[in-house]
């Protein structure tokens, strides 16, 4: 059995569609259930439904053989796994955003940056030689500058509508080409090569 760690949320449906195109029986994923461990009817595939940020830890540990995770999450988590394919779904950008009227805010001596990408923020600003205060949040990041909790945010921008609805703009693009990737556990790729490699081949063809 190939065990997948699949992200819940906005990548869930796109991921299931892609796997279905490659002959994976995903009908169990279409049912409305609170169960987090699912199996295809033919028992060839197991699915763990996890928070997107947790996909890399399931794959690195070997609990899952394969996973689908955003490049943003992979950069943030820095886990020891193989990135096999750019699946081209879930396109977005990782950006620094804030108020347009305060575009010089990035030169602040003590910049307060709200983000769920704490490690990435630390690296990005350290590379620029800037000391910042990181304000770790788990969601609704745009609220931080609006309420005065932070000066700017480091977050993903997909359609831009959340920024716009809150009067914020992109001040700088940090990673312009974020997409979902297929990741593999290093040991599984060796021991399960007979099953896993053909599936990766079918996925590669599906995304061409
Ligand atoms: C993400 C991200 C932004 C928003 C960007 O949040 O953190 O808030 O999506 O998308 P947009 O450019 O299409 O508006 P998500 O919806 O995952 O929820 P969260 O606030 O719980 O992190």
Name its key features:
single chain, about 210 residues, 9 helices, alpha/beta, D-Maltodextrin-Binding Protein, domain 2, binds 1-O-pyrophosphono-5-O-phosphono-alpha-D-ribofuranose, 2 domains, six-stranded mixed beta sheet, five-stranded mixed beta sheet, 11 strands, elongated
Question: How would you describe the overall organization of this protein?
Answer:
With 208 residues, the protein is an alpha/beta fold. It folds into two domains: 2-90 and 179-207, D-Maltodextrin-Binding Protein, domain 2, CATH 3.40.190; 92-176, D-Maltodextrin-Binding Protein, domain 2, CATH 3.40.190. It is 33% helix and 30% strand. It has nine helices and eleven strands. The chain has helices at 12-21, 27-30, 55-61, 71-77, 118-127, 143-147, 161-165, 186-191, 193-206, and strands at residues 2-7, 37-39, 45-50, 66-70, 82-86, 92-98, 111-115, 132-136, 152-157, 169-178, 180-184. A six-stranded mixed sheet has the order 2-3-1-4-11-5, with helices on both faces. Strands 8-7-9-6-10 form a five-stranded mixed sheet. A hairpin with a 5-residue loop joins strand 2 (37-39) and strand 3 (45-50). The model has no long low-confidence stretch (mean pLDDT 95). It binds 1-O-pyrophosphono-5-O-phosphono-alpha-D-ribofuranose (PRP). 1-O-pyrophosphono-5-O-phosphono-alpha-D-ribofuranose (PRP) binds at residues 139-142, 155-162. The site of 1-O-pyrophosphono-5-O-phosphono-alpha-D-ribofuranose has 12 residues, from strand 9 and helix 7.
């Amino acid at each position: 059995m190939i065990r997948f760690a699949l992200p819940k949320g906005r990548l869930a449906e796109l991921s299931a569609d892609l796997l279905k195109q490659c002959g994976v029986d995903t009908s169990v994923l279409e049912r409305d259930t609170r169960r987090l461990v699912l199996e295809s009817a033919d028992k060839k595939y197991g699915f763990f439904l996890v928070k997107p940020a947790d996909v890399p830890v399931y794959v690195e540990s070997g609990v899952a053989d394969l996973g689908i995770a955003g490049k943003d999450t992979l950069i943030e988590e820095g886990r020891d796994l193989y990135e096999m394919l750019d699946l081209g779904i879930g396109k977005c950008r990782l950006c620094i955003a804030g108020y347009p009227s305060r575009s010089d805010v990035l030169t602040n001596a003590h910049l307060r940056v709200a983000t769920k990408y704490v490690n990435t923020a630390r690296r990005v600003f350290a590379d620029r030689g800037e000391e910042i205060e990181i304000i770790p949040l788990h969601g609704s990041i745009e609220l931080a500058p609006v309420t005065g909790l932070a000066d700017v945010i480091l977050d993903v921008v997909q359609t831009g509508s959340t920024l716009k609805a809150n009067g914020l703009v992109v001040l700088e693009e940090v990673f312009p080409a974020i997409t979902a990737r297929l990741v593999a556990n290093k040991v599984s790729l060796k021991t399960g090569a007979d099953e896993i490699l053909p599936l990766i081949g079918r996925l590669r063809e599906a995304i061409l």
